[in-house]
Amino acid sequence: MGSTLSRKIVRFWTRNHRRVLLVGLDAAGKTTILYHLRLHKTIPTLPTIGFNTEAIAFHGLTLDLWDVGGQDSLRPYWRHHFTGTQGIVFVIDSSDAERLELAKAELHGVLSDDQLHDACLLVVLNKRDLIQGDASDIVAQLDF
């Protein structure tokens, strides 16, 4: 397991151009994160219908960030964006306890896709400022 992860990280960081996909349920904060990374400030956003893309320079790398809408009707189309993706940022609204199981199911669905077997994964527990408690409780529920 460790050597497989190491190979994935080496492959991810040895090229100068990366394709990174931001996915998660609707209203998780994907678009806010995208534009905060791009503009270095938080701006008002609207629900994403389809996708947004931004290229970001980061320590000599170019990250092509794809923010894909998370509404129920759009989730089946996520897989069309998987080809060539080297990194996945899965965003979870940690203040939405009612939909944590759904987020977990979608995360596991993304992880089971063969097109992403070499992709690196970052899970972001967003909106932590809106709840009390320990993030480790949420992480434990994700069953990694």
TrEMBL record:
This is ADP-ribosylation factor. It comes from the Eukaryota. GTP binds at residues 24-31, 70, 126-129. GO terms for molecular function: GTP binding; GTPase activity; metal ion binding. Mg(2+) binds at residues 31, 48. InterPro entries: P-loop_NTPase, Small_GTP-bd, Small_GTPase_ARF, Small_GTPase_ARF/SAR. Keywords: GTP-binding, Magnesium, Metal-binding, Nucleotide-binding. Belongs to the small GTPase superfamily. Arf family. It holds the Pfam family Arf.
